[in-house]
């Protein structure tokens, strides 16, 4: 059944989607105000402001915090909502929107009339939470490049960033430690998924579920540029997992390290250089969700 919201806050991140969130703000606030008993409005002009305003809303006791923005804004808001009774709602207005896609919300009406659902989250050794995928290696380099690009918007940005990074492709030493043991290999990339998608809909961990208490880990071992180019089209379908150089497994805790200079990205946001440790925390976040048919 749809939820009844007594006190909600709308957190607008105007820069999301190259200004798309700013253009949507007025209509979003009006629609949301009509569907909740009380609404607070917060406008954040920076990542620091987004995080501070999210914490303020949670401290004010709102039962629903709605973020109008992309995965970066949702990532910041979840830092405040995780482990609390405040429900996170997402009105997607970014370039990737992978978390909104995972919970099924596409508009204000979905948030107002959706259902509460709890999600597992990943908790990093740095103290940060993440909801979708943590990656390192080739894919984090793609993230760095995509975030610096001004054109195009949406998934095509990641496709072009992938092509650009191929020029400097090289494998590097990677050490993966889990509750099952330790593995050392030459790797191209590693992705630790709480949900399947990153990069605007790429199912890098196609079988990942945010309610099973486990990460899905995808590891691509050393491969040539030509082989990787042939494999790239399968990323959009999830069939990359059939390639002999790709291995997947599940674990509750993962530590990534190695002499590789890799940087971890989670929810599309830069985290820290390896080594990084992470663990799954079941039911850490309550979200508004539209159940899949």
UniProtKB/TrEMBL annotation:
One of its GO terms (molecular function) is ATP-dependent diacylglycerol kinase activity. The keyword Transferase applies. GO terms for cellular component: plasma membrane. Residues 3-128 form the DAGKc domain. Its cofactor is Mg(2+). InterPro entries: ATP-NAD_kinase_N, Diacylglycerol_kinase_cat_dom, Lipid_Phosphate_FormReg, NAD/diacylglycerol_kinase_sf, YegS/DAGK_C. Gene3D superfamilies: 2.60.200.40, Probable inorganic polyphosphate/atp-NAD kinase, domain 1. GO terms for biological process: phospholipid biosynthetic process. Keywords: ATP-binding, Kinase, Lipid biosynthesis, Lipid metabolism, Nucleotide-binding, Phospholipid biosynthesis, Phospholipid metabolism, Transferase. Signal peptide: none annotated. The keyword Lipid biosynthesis applies. Pfam families: DAGK_cat, YegS_C. Belongs to the diacylglycerol/lipid kinase family. This is Sphingosine kinase. It comes from Lentzea tibetensis.
């Amino acid at each position: 059944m749809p939820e009844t919201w007594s006190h909600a806050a709308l957190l607008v991140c105007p820069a999301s989607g190259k200004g798309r969130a700013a253009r949507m703000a007025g209509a979003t606030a009006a629609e949301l105000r009509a569907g909740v008993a009380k609404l607070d409005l917060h406008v954040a002009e920076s990542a620091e402001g987004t995080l501070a305003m999210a914490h303020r809303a949670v401290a004010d006791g709102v039962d629903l915090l709605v973020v109008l923005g992309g995965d970066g804004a949702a990532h910041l808001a979840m830092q405040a909502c995780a482990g609390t009774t405040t429900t996170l709602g997402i009105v997607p207005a970014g370039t990737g929107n992978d978390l909104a896609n995972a919970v099924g919300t596409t508009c204000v009406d979905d948030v107002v009339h959706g259902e509460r659902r709890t999600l597992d989250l990943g908790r990093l050794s740095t103290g940060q939470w993440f909801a979708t995928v943590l990656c390192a290696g080739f894919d984090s380099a793609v993230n760095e490049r995509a975030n610096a690009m001004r054109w195009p918007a949406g998934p095509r940005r990641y496709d072009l960033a992938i092509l650009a990074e191929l020029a400097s492709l090289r494998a590097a030493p990677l050490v993966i430690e889990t509750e099952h043991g330790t593995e050392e290999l030459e790797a191209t990339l590693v992705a630790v998924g709480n949900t399947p998608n990153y990069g605007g809909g790429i199912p890098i961990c196609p079988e990942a579920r945010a309610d099973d208490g486990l990460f899905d880990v995808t590891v691509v071992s050393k491969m040539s540029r030509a082989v990787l180019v042939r494999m790239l089209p399968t990323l959009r379908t999830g069939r990359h997992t059939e390639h002999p150089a790709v291995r997947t497994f599940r674990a509750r805790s993962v530590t990534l390290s190695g002499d590789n200079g890799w940087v971890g990205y989670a929810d599309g946001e830069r985290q820290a250089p390896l080594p990084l440790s992470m663990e799954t925390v079941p039911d850490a976040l309550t979200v508004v969700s539209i159940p899949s048919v």
